[in-house]
Write a structure and sequence with these properties.
The protein has 288 residues and is an alpha/beta fold. The chain has eleven helices and ten strands.
Amino acid sequence: MPGPLHIALAFDDRFWAPAYATMRSVCLATRRRNDLVFHLFHWRLRPDHAADFDVIAAEFGATIRHTPLDQDSRVSSLIESLPGTRDFPPVVYARLLLDELLPPEIERVLYLDSDLYVRAPVERLLEMDLEGKSLAAAPEPGRHHLVGGDDMRMREGPFDNADPYFNSGVMVIDRRAWGRAGLRGYLLQLQQRGELAALYHDQDVLNLKFRDDWLRLDPLWNLTKPHPALRALDPMIVHYTTGMKPWNVLAYVAFGSSYKHVMTRDMLRRYRSYLRRQWLARLIGRRK
């Protein structure tokens, strides 16, 4: 008998609507909707935004489990001490803590970023053979730029340009291996040595820790920078990694129109209004 399909997302209030769209796309792409269990690790999520996810449970029969990270002092103190940006808030580091955050009975979990459009059944990932590796992920097409810098010269750092390097937006994770890696301790070591600030967020941390211990996924399971011409590749998961997001008014990206329908018109309208208010608040704050 098929078992539950565990999926984890980590986001703050600014990405509540994209996370909602990612989850709806997961539900629409599988016939096993009742088996879906979404583990939402969120940071300072407004109650009305949290309530939106209950609609997914009612619509598809999926299970939604909320974990407000800001209410857990052991997690919140760590997250608040970590570097981040508006596009990469410190809550993204929560995926490093999945072993301690997930219920103990879970052995396999699929981690998803919140700016994805899932177009294929996720059970194909969750039930794959990891071949003894700790995780499966797709290679990062921009890895040479991330490792070598803007002019692609060799520079001092933890990576070599020839190193394999994965994008951490879609990961099939072996729970026990994740726990054995001791990622909280490793993260704190990097922070204490002053090395964390020079890294590309938690993606670098994961590539350092799981170097040569990850299974390569077909890149179509995590198609980044999706130009409209790439529609012809019929990707399984589309990852909107640039500033050109499908929820923008002008968005020249693959499947942008379909994504808006998945998010739903009402949610898109509310999210755009939310983003405008956030923009105005930042503008007023700068002028004071």
